[in-house]
Amino acid sequence: MANYREMWENLGMDLAAHDNLCAVLPTAFGDVYLSQKNRPKAMDFWDMVVADIHGIRPAELIEAQKKGQKVFGTFCVYVPDEVVIAANGIVTGLCGGSQFWVPDGEKVLPKSTCPLIKASVGARLGKTCPFFRIADMYVGETTCDGKKKAWEILGKDVPMYVMDIPQMKRAKDVKKWAEEIADFAAVVEKETGNKITPEKLADAIRIINEKRKALARVYEARKSSTIPISGKDALLMMQIAFFDDPVRCAQMVNRLADELEQRVKDGVSVFPAGTKRILLSGTPMAIPNWKMHHIIETSGAAVVCEEACTGTRYFEKLVDESATTLEGQYAALADRYMGINCACFTPNTKRIDDIIRLAKEYKVDGVIDVNLKFCCLYDTEGYTVENALKEAGIPVLGIETDYTDADAEQLRTRIQAFIEVLG
Q1: I want to staple 123 with a disulfide (CB 3.0 to 4.6 A). Which of 12, 129, 148, 241 is the partner?
Q2: In a domain? residue 299
Q3: What share of the chain is helix, strand, coil (3-state, %, to 5)?
Q4: Do residues 281 and 385 lie in contact, with contact meaning Cβ atoms separated by under 8 Å?
Q5: Inter-residue long-range contacts of 384-387, CB under 8 Å, 24+ positions, other chains counted
Q6: What is the 3-state secondary structure (H, E, C) of 81-121?
Q7: In the chain, what's the furthest Cα-to-Cα distance?
């Protein structure tokens, strides 16, 4: 493993605190991931990425900056990567999924803020994550009140642009989102110094669509009665997809999909026959949050799908590639991104429809609806989700949790009981 200490020091990171983080991650990853048996060989790429997660990709981003490229840090699947790529910019995800960053976030945020927001703010202000130090500009969005206030705090420390997401999905709301995308494009052009043309945007749309198609192939393989990959490994692939170069990401994911499709043909499963199949729905699971998957898959069940931003919401629905003008392309982007069914919208019946559809497509035995503590959007919508699933005859378990391990054994007991009820 290369020595990136000088790079971290140049980024102004707190090296002592960062050393503490780096000391914990390998053990956690080994316990959760490397202890698995019969993993797909193609997972070696993601194992390598995690082994040097604060080194390899950050070094690539810094080299790109030296050549004049700008890096945009994003927190949400609604921010269109295509616009940044069309201006020769680079996108990196910034959501925090570790309890390590929460205390620094709580120095400026109420403790009753969801852990994802606290961790994201803490990773920046605590100076312990290189991705948060490298990004030239952060791009936030108005998906919840906690994020809106967090952007104001982060905006005092780093250049911040906020996209205003409509709260409904009427025709005028989709049009408004297309206008927001056009406004964002102007900001990206100014930051990068590069003009976005229909040709460049068309290329960027194709690049991201190919990435979505590759991810969809892996999920298609997970529908098989032969389960060729653990939910934990699929989650890791999704989490790294937010950080990686999109072309390389598509190549590596297609490589994995090739192996999984062959495994399905050969009847190679990572779980015993008859293992109960679980769909996870709810709040996103940012790296390194592997908590729920690990508990479920060491309690006798298999996670075969995630209805989450770190799941189907990230890749389902492609952008129409037929438009030849910027106005038409912004409209196509708006149509696709407004098709993502987050709990921030009202009414939100389409998300309920998605969960029931996915439960059937992936032939699940039950759904576990997971809500990060203090996320009022998904917590409130959990009532509707659970009622709809019960009416559809699909067993469901509602879970509220955070990033700590304090509730791990309690959750394991509840999940094991739920699996037993499934028969």
Answers
A1: 129
A2: yes
A3: 55, 10, 35
A4: yes
A5: 384/348, 384/352, 385/281, 385/351, 385/352, 385/355
A6: HHHHHHCCCEEEECCCCCHHHHHHHHCCCCCCCCHHHHHHH
A7: 60
Residue 367, both tokens = 């759904």
Q: What are the pLDDT digits (tens) for 163-198?
A: 999 999 999 999 999 999 999 999 999 999 999 999
Residue 312 token pair: 């189907």
Domain containing 137 equals: 5-26+39-421
Does residue 123 belong to any structural domain of this protein? yes
Could you tell me if residue 32 is inside a domain? no
Sheet holding 366-372, edge to edge: 301-307, 276-282, 366-372, 396-401
Q: How many domains does the chain contain in total?
A: 1
14: three-class secondary structure by DSSP = coil
Q: CA-CA distance, 59 to 155, in Å (whole number)?
A: 25
Cβ atoms of residues 237 and 46 within 8 Å: yes
pLDDT tens digit string along 295-318?
999 999 999 999 999 999 999 999
Kindly report the length of the chain.
423
